[in-house]
Design goal:
single chain, alpha/beta, Arc Repressor Mutant, subunit A, D-Maltodextrin-Binding Protein, domain 2, 5-stranded mixed sheet, 44% helix, elongated
């Protein structure tokens, strides 16, 4: 089995599309089709079922996937060991969410931009389930998660920090200054948040599900913060994302104890041998997030 055929097979198996695989590999689609047929011919089995415009792996294809990935990873590891350089080099596809990209990751991104310019970081904005699936499929090398659970099927995950949440409002909001707020108090207010799938929005909505209050949805965290500051409603967000607004008085923290805990985590596919430049990224993420320290109440 030729390595290039296995690389093409693994990509098609990951994205389940000859067209998309060709685009990502920068091949003509006919080349991808020819390579898959050559691999099937050499093995004497069909690896994909063609279902009109769709494809899916056969049983033989399913069995080949983990071996193909191991061979590709070992080849990359061997190449790195033989052609060892003093300067880290290589691409890293990273799944992350807006609040982490904007407030946890800037020191890490700046470090790699200035100190390790040959490491090409590619940030992919996705939320929990999509990030986990992309990691399992090998589409992403690394993923950042903000979840209450710290165990994820098929993944290795390391907690970087507990992520405190805070319920915020405009200083002019009717709930500002009130104490011992209850879930019914919050459900009677206009709730604001990012799209469904955002972990803290989903947990907040589940906590108030008995009253089923409607959410005013905003596309981004920044838009949500602006809406809250403008008096449109209240929102639950990570404290790190509103620390400046709380310090300046543009927003105030409401007196409600958040009944759940989220953890910022870094994850990768279980069993994956991380190349040296990816291990460096994990090590620096661990160090820099720890240096940011806990986000405490003012």
């Amino acid at each position: 089995m030729e390595l290039r055929l296995l690389i093409t097979f693994e990509k098609v198996a990951t994205v389940l599309s000859f067209t998309r695989a060709a685009t990502e590999l920068q091949y003509a689609q006919s080349s991808v089709t020819t390579q898959i047929r050559a691999l099937e011919s050499s093995l004497g089995v069909e690896l994909f079922e063609r279902l009109g415009s769709r494809i899916r792996l056969t049983e033989a294809g399913e069995r080949l996937v983990p071996y193909a990935r191991r061979i590709i990873e070992l080849t990359e590891e061997a190449r790195a060991a033989v052609v060892e350089t003093e300067e880290p080099v290589g691409p890293i596809a990273i799944g992350t969410m807006e609040s982490l990209t904007s407030y946890r990751l800037p020191p890490l991104l700046e470090l790699f931009h200035h100190r390790y310019p040959k490491v090409q970081l590619s940030l992919r904005p996705t939320l929990g389930d999509e990030t986990r699936q992309a990691l399992r499929q090998g589409t992403y090398d690394i993923g950042f998660l903000m979840e209450p659970e710290t165990e994820h099927a098929g993944l290795e995950a390391e907690v970087l920090a507990e992520e405190p949440l805070v319920l915020v409002a405009s200083p002019r909001h009717p709930l500002a200054g009130r104490t011992n707020l209850t879930a019914p108090d919050l459900a009677a207010a206009q709730l604001m948040g990012t799209e469904p799938g955002c972990p803290y929005r989903d947990l907040f909505e589940a906590e108030l599900s008995e009253w089923a209050p409607p959410f005013m949805e905003f596309g981004t965290l920044e838009a949500t913060k602006r809406g809250v500051a403008g008096g449109l409603g209240i929102a639950l967000v990570p404290r790190i994302t509103v620390s400046e607004e709380l310090a300046s008085g543009a927003l105030v923290e409401l007196d409600w104890k958040v009944p759940f805990t989220l953890f910022t985590q870094i994850a990768w596919r279980r069993g994956k041998r991380l190349p040296a430049h990816v291990r460096l990224f994990v090590e620096q993420a661990r160090r820099l997030v720890a240096e940011q320290g806990p986000q405490e109440s003012p």
